[in-house]
Amino acid sequence: MTLADLLVLDVAPWHTAADQWQRLARGVDDAAEQLIRGTRDLPHAWPEGAGSAAAAERAAALRAEVSNTCNPAKRIFDAMDQHAYGMSALRQQAEGIVAEARRAGYSVDPATGGITAPAAAYSAGHLEHTARQTGLLLNDLRSVVERARALDDSTANAITINIPTPRTGFGTTQLQPVSRTDLEAQAQRTPAQVRAWWESLTPQQQEQAILDFPDLVGALDGIPITDRDLANRSVLLREDGVLKQELATSQARSDYLRSMYPSRLAEVYPHVLDPKAAWETELIKLQRQQGELSGKLRGLNAISSRLADPNKPDAFLVGLSTADDGKTIVAVGNPDTADNVVTYVPGTGEQLSKVRGGIDRADVMAGDANDLDPKAKTAAVYWFGYDAPDDIFKNAGSKSYAEAGGPILDKFQTGLRATHEGEVPSHNTVLGHSYGATTVGHAAMSSSISADKVVFVGSPGVDVNHASELTGVRPEQVYATRAAHDMIRAVPDWGVIHGNDPSDLDFGARNFASNPGNPNNEGATHSAYWDPGNIARKNIAMIVTGQL
């Protein structure tokens, strides 16, 4: 399915075919009723003998076959009917975008889906606006084509599952189990394509994939939040057991080494010139390992406790990895059914052992937004899905972490759009704190980011000097705040480290107020934006709910 295919698509044959399948389904339903009525009294009319038993068995088989044929025919009608109306709407959207582009002087190539601005648009003073406008039009057009491809795939699979075959009969076709290769291939596709593929699977296939490959299912943007949650809870249980075993093994080794000191160290290190030095080095290494393992287990426990807390809103485990410093994504409320979604990105020093604080902030933002606007549902996502810098002084000045994390965040946001339920899209905000703001900035440099607003809180800079350089959002959609006594104010400005401070007026963002903080503890002020009574909390809630 290409843009050219969509623009010339004639849905009339689909309506005709759908009507035929509907008539077939009704006819089969009527036939099933007649067969049931006609054979209901057979045991009474012919109560005994081998012929009676054979007739009863055959009649039962026919009733089951005809009854089971009706529903697949109905499902094919539904798929074709929805395909016709859905494709018609998507074609109209595509035609509207193409017409809008051409009225503005742009050239549209239906074969490739490319959009080219007229040469005059690149005249002095219009370069940035033209690039941004071209990106927005291209993104809108690609989104429509992706949705058309997703619908096409879904319809094809619905027909494949329900169509009769000479070997298996009507509506009994079984698709092959989902393999690891299938899931790994989906990781290379867009979230919209992943969503269409997932919906094309039978419930049994989805369940099998979650049970057999929870780590792959749980990490795929485009799979619904509830299914990712189910898969990642399985990963959580597995990783908890693995880490506990590794910790026990490491502690047992430490106990053994201490028991051999000092008289039997030669037995432990028979080929080492200095057994004591080797003993000290290994103990230090084991202690470091045990600290890391204990920290990760502490993080997993914090996640488990929040998921199981009956006194708080439902939480969903959207992503989890214990590799390196670890990663996790936890949603407070279901983003797929929420009216508003805020994605919170943490900064320097974040690791699996410290996730409790990030989850608490998600709880705070979801609670504040739902209290402010109880008629709308707001979900808050703690997104620790990237490798954050470990140390402020050693590596937080590098933009490499944000460069790597930005595209991952961008794809996650696109996934939220792909899996959201209902006709009305959710109002999505992406908020970055500290270095997390830098990562959000890199995601917002992409014209494809699926966000209505971005918010920078206590930011060291986002590697651009003006909001207009964030091509994925308009300047009026960019918000920023920095407390007067936040230690982040010491970061050099205007391109020295991460570019202009987003809270400066010349950056072009919409500034909102925060409490000034403690002048005697600027480090604490840097983390105080979610503290009780901080005006930043209400302002964030107003942004998230579309009131600011």
Relative strand content:
5-15%
Low-pLDDT parts are: none
Query: Distance between termini?
Result: 40 Å
Can you summarize the main beta sheet? 8 strands, mixed
Q: How would you classify the quaternary structure? A: single chain
Strand ordering within the main sheet: 3-4-6-5-7-8-9-10
What is the number of E strands? 10
Instruction: Average the pLDDT over all residues and give the rounded result.
Output: 90
Share of helix, binned: 40-55%
Number of helices: 17
Structural class: alpha/beta
Overall shape: it is: globular
Q: Write the H/E string, N to C.
A: HHHHEEHHHHHHHHEEEHEHEHEEEHH
Query: What's the gyration radius in Å?
Result: 30 Å
Please characterize this protein's 3D structure.
- By secondary structure, the protein is an alpha/beta fold.
- Helices cover 54% and strands 9% of the residues.
- The strands form two sheets. Strands 3-4-6-5-7-8-9-10 form an eight-stranded mixed β-sheet, sandwiched between helices.
- β5, α13 and β6 form a beta-alpha-beta unit.
- α2 packs antiparallel against α4, α5 runs parallel beside α7 and α14 packs across α15.
- The radius of gyration is 30 Å and the shape is globular.
